[in-house]
Design a protein that fits this description.
The protein is of the alpha+beta class and about 750 residues long. The chain is built from 20 helices and 25 strands.
Length: about 750
C-alpha cells in the first residue's frame, strides 16, 4: 500500500510562501553543468599565471565595464570570455564577499544575465567582444593570452579569489560528472528538493548551527548563487539563514536527522548523495552521450542505465517484542524482469526504528522493469526454505512519474510497519556490451553446414567453409554473425572434401542481424545477408607480424616478439585512411577509466598473471579530447567488448577478432577457442543477465546473501571477465570432441590449418 502524501515534500513546500525563485533554476542548472564541464576540460585555464591574469582582467576590466553597462535592475545581455566568466562564477559562490566587493567599488550589486541557450550565448559573447575591442586597447585582447611561464604579481584580492578557484576547479568531476545530472526530469526533482532544503533551513534556523546539502541540492544552490542579484532577492525573507548551509561532513548526521524528522523521507536518494564524492563514485564509467554512431545497425538495441536506492524504516510499538517476533523475518530484493537468480536479503531486525537506512544501492538497466521487495519468513531450524508474507513492487515507469523520482510504500504486519522508499535517476544511455559465442560452420552463402540445409537445397553440395561466431548483446539478443573463411570446395560422400583456401583469402566478415532458423529448429539456419564489415589479411611491413585491411579503409598492424613466450609485448598500430596522425591508439591492458583498483583485484581472489594481457583499450583522440578518451575495451581472448555509443561497434569487433586470429597464428595455439564449432549451451536468458544489475560497492558488505562468486555477476564485467562470461555457460566446455562434428564440415585438420598453421 502507498504511504500518505500528507508529509510529502511537495505538499509542505507548497504552503511555504517565502520560497520563490526569480530565475528558471532548471534551465540555469543545465547551463551551469555545461559551463563546469567546459571549464574542467579547458586545461589551459588551470595554470596559476593564467588564473592570476584572469583575475586581473576580471577586476580591472570586466567588472568596471559591466558596472557601467548595468543601468537598470536587469543585467545587459553580454557574456565575458571563458577565463573571466570562470573568475566571476567563483566569486559569486561567496555571496557575502561578492556583495561587499560590488558595493565598495560600484555602489551596487552587479548581476548576471540569464542566458540559457547556445544561440543567445553566442550572440552575447560576440556582442561583448565588439564592446570590449572598442573600449580597450590592443594590448588588452579579448581572449586571455597569458604566458604560463611568466610570474604575475598577486594582490590580496587575487590570492583570495585564486584560493576559491583552486577549490572549485574540479567541481564538475567531484560532484556532477554523472550523465543524468543534465536530464530535465532530474533537475526538476532537484529544484523541489532544494526548495525543501531551504524550507528546513529557515524553519529550524534556531535549532541548528550548520547543515550539509546532498549533491542535487548543492547543484541548485551554487547555480542560484551564480546569479547574484536574483539570489539576493530570493533569499531576502530567509533572514540570513542560508549562511548555515555548508559543505562539511561533520554536519551530515545532524542534517539527515532533521530532514527525516521534517519530511519523513530519507535524506539521501538516488542521484542525491551526501557531498562525499570519493565514497559515492559509481563502480563503472558512464558519460554524456551526444551521438550514437551505432544507430545505423538496426540489430543493436541501446542499454539505458540508472541509479537505484532502496531505503527502509521499521516502526513497532514494542521494540523488545519486535526483536523476538522478527528473528526469522527478512526482506528480499529481486527484479521484476530478468536476473531471476538475483536475490538480495537483509534481516528485518537490522533496520532502525528511528532513522531511515539505505538497504540497497545499485545500478540497473531499464529493461529489468522494476524491483520487488518481499517480506519473507524463514522456515526455522529444520527448513531451508522461506514463506512469502507480503510484497511491494516499484516499476521504473511509476518512479519516473513520481515527485522527486521517489515513491513511498508501506507494509503493515502485526504491531509493525515497514516503510520502503524507492528512488531512481533518469535513464541515460550506457555503453554497448557484446560477446562472441561459438556456432556452427557455414558455407559461402552463410547457411550452416547441415543435412537439414542440404535437404532444403535438394542435396546440392554446400560450397565453402567458414568458422562462425554469433554476437550476443547484454540481453542475449543476436546482433551480428562473425565469419572467418577457412576452406573452399565442398564435401561429397566418397569423393571430394573441402580444402584450405590461400592465406590471403582467409578473410573475416561481419553480417548484421540474427540467424534465420529453419522452421522446427532452434539451432540450424542461415546467417543474415547484409555484410557490414570485412578484414582481409595482407603482407605486413617490416617489423610487424600481421596486417589486416578493413573495409572502412583503416589498417591494423600487430607486432609481437616471438622470442618471448608471453604476449605482454603485443603492440598495435591502427592506421587511419584519412589522417597520418594517430586518431586512435590501441593499448594493451585495462586503461584509463577501465583500470581496476588493487583492492578490487584482491577481493576478487587476485589477478591472473596474464589477465591484463588479454585486454586492449581503444583510445580515441579528438579536438574535444586532445589527451585521448577510452571509447572501447575488448578482451580478445574471450571475444567480449564494451563499446561507447560514439565508437563504431563493428570496427571494434573486427579489431577483436583480428587480434585473436593473429595471436593464435603467431603462437600456433588456439588461444581463443576458435576451433569450437558448436553453440555452447548457455544459461536461460533472464536467469543471470550480463550487467543488467550492478551493485554499488557500498552494498557488497551489506548483502551477505550473495556468494563471492555471484557478486562478480553484479560487478562491471571487466573486473573479473573470465568468471562473468563463464557464469553464462551451463556446460563449461573447453572443446567439443571431434566425433561430435560431421564429416561434411571438413574435419579438424582443415580448421587447424586455417587457424594455427
Amino acid at each position: 500500500m502507498s504511504a500518505s502524501d500528507e508529509n510529502s515534500i511537495s505538499s509542505i513546500i507548497r504552503e511555504d510562501r517565502t520560497l520563490r525563485f526569480s530565475v528558471d533554476l532548471v534551465s540555469a542548472a543545465r547551463r551551469n553543468l555545461s559551463f563546469l564541464r567546459l571549464v574542467s576540460d579547458s586545461h589551459w585555464l588551470h595554470h596559476k599565471p593564467t588564473l592570476l591574469q584572469s583575475i586581473r582582467r576580471y577586476d580591472k576590466l570586466w567588472m568596471p565595464l559591466i558596472a557601467d553597462l548595468t543601468t537598470t535592475s536587469k543585467p545587459p545581455m553580454i557574456l565575458p570570455p571563458l577565463d573571466i566568466e570562470w573568475v566571476w562564477y567563483c566569486h559569486t559562490l561567496n555571496p557575502g564577499s561578492y556583495r561587499q566587493y560590488c558595493e565598495s567599488k560600484f555602489s551596487k550589486l552587479i548581476g548576471k544575465p540569464a542566458i540559457f541557450d547556445e544561440e543567445n550565448e553566442e550572440y552575447a559573447l560576440n556582442r561583448c567582444r565588439e564592446i570590449w575591442e572598442n573600449k580597450f586597447p590592443i594590448s588588452e585582447p579579448f581572449e586571455n593570452e597569458a604566458d604560463i611561464n611568466l610570474e604575475y604579481d598577486a594582490s590580496v584580492f587575487s590570492e583570495e579569489l585564486l584560493d576559491q578557484m583552486w577549490k572549485q576547479r574540479d567541481l564538475h568531476i567531484r560532484f556532477f560528472s554523472e550523465p543524468y545530472y543534465s536530464e530535465m526530469v532530474y533537475l526538476v526533482a532537484a529544484k523541489e528538493r532544494y526548495k525543501a532544503f531551504l524550507h528546513m533551513v529557515h524553519k529550524f534556523a534556531d535549532q541548528s548551527s550548520f547543515l550539509a546539502p546532498t549533491s542535487d541540492v548543492l547543484l541548485m544552490w551554487i547555480t542560484h548563487q551564480s546569479y547574484p542579484t536574483v539570489y539576493a532577492t530570493d533569499i531576502k525573507e530567509l533572514d540570513g539563514d542560508v549562511e548555515k548551509i555548508i559543505e562539511q561532513k561533520e554536519y551530515i548526521e545532524k542534517t539527515k536527522k532533521l530532514w527525516e524528522r521534517t519530511f519523513d523521507q530519507p535524506f539521501e536518494k538516488a542521484g542525491a548523495s551526501i557531498a562525499q564524492p570519493i565514497s559515492n563514485e559509481p563502480p563503472f564509467y558512464w558519460d554524456v552521450t551526444n551521438a550514437d554512431v551505432n544507430t545505423i545497425y538496426k540489430s543493436m538495441v541501446p542499454r539505458f542505465l540508472f541509479e537505484v536506492c532502496i531505503s527502509v524504516k521499521v516502526v513497532t510499538s514494542n521494540q523488545k517484542q519486535m526483536k523476538k517476533d522478527l528473528e526469522r523475518d527478512f526482506l528480499r530484493l529481486r527484479m521484476v524482469k530478468g536476473h531471476r537468480e538475483l536475490k538480495m536479503e537483509k534481516p528485518v531486525s537490522d533496520f532502525s526504528t528511528e532513522l531511515w537506512q539505505k538497504a540497497w544501492h545499485l545500478y540497473s538497466e531499464f529493461g529489468t522493469k522494476g524491483v520487488i521487495i518481499e517480506l519473507r519468513q524463514s522456515g526455522g531450524k529444520f527448513s531451508t526454505g522461506s514463506s512469502l508474507r507480503e510484497s511491494l513492487s516499484f516499476s521504473w515507469n511509476e518512479l519516473l512519474r513520481a515527485p522527486s523520482l521517489t515513491s513511498v510504500k508501506k507494509v503493515d504486519q502485526r504491531a509493525m510497519t515497514i516503510t520502503t522508499v524507492a528512488s531512481i535517476t533518469p535513464p541515460v544511455q550506457g555503453s554497448y556490451l557484446l560477446k562472441c559465442v561459438p556456432d556452427r560452420v557455414t558455407d559461402d552463402s552463410g547457411a550452416m553446414i547441415s543435412d537439414v540445409i542440404l535437404r532444403m537445397n535438394q542435396y546440392r553440395p554446400q560450397e565453402g567453409r567458414w568458422l562462425s561466431r554469433t554476437v550476443l548483446d547484454h540481453a542475449g539478443r543476436e546482433c551480428f554473425v562473425v565469419r572467418i573463411r577457412v576452406g573452399g570446395g565442398f564435401w561429397r560422400r566418397g569423393g571430394e572434401i573441402p580444402t584450405a583456401v590461400k592465406w590471403e583469402n582467409r578473410i573475416i566478415e561481419i553480417r548484421e542481424g540474427s540467424w534465420s532458423y529453419v522452421v522446427g529448429s532452434s539451432s540450424i539456419g542461415t546467417s543474415p545477408e547484409k555484410v557490414v564489415g570485412t578484414a582481409t589479411p595482407k603482407e605486413p611491413k617490416e617489423g610487424f607480424q600481421a596486417l589486416w585491411s578493413f573495409s572502412s579503409g583503416n589498417g591494423l598492424l600487430i607486432k609481437w616478439d616471438s622470442s618471448k613466450k608471453s604476449i605482454s609485448e603485443l603492440r598495435f598500430d591502427l592506421q587511419s585512411k584519412i589522417s597520418s596522425e594517430p586518431m586512435v591508439k590501441l593499448l594493451q591492458g585495462r586503461q584509463m577509466q577501465y583500470q581496476v583498483k588493487e583492492d578490487i583485484i584482491n577481493n576478487n581472489n587476485g589477478k591472473r598473471e596474464d589477465e591484463e594481457e588479454e585486454f586492449v583499450t581503444l583510445i580515441r583522440y579528438t579536438d574535444e579530447n586532445p589527451t585521448g578518451k577510452a571509447t572501447a575495451l575488448m578482451n580478445w581472448k574471450l571475444m567480449v567488448v564494451e563499446v561507447l555509443a560514439e565508437e563504431d561497434a563493428v570496427e571494434v569487433l573486427l579489431i577483436c577478432v583480428c587480434i585473436v586470429r593473429s595471436v593464435s597464428e603467431m603462437k600456433r595455439e588456439d588461444v581463443g577457442k576458435l576451433l569450437v564449432r558448436r553453440r555452447i549451451r548457455e544459461a536461460k536468458i533472464g536467469d543471470r543477465d550480463w550487467s543488467s544489475v550492478i551493485l554499488h560497492p557500498s552494498s557488497y558488505n551489506t548483502s551477505p546473501s550473495l556468494s563471492s562468486s555471484y557478486i562478480s555477476s553484479v560487478q562491471p564485467w571487466y573486473w573479473n571477465a573470465e568468471l562473468v562470461t563463464a557464469s553464462h555457460v551451463k556446460d563449461q566446455i573447453v572443446g567439443v570432441p571431434s566425433s561430435n562434428y560431421s564429416q561434411a564440415e571438413g574435419g579438424d585438420k582443415l580448421y587447424k590449418a586455417g587457424i594455427i598453421p
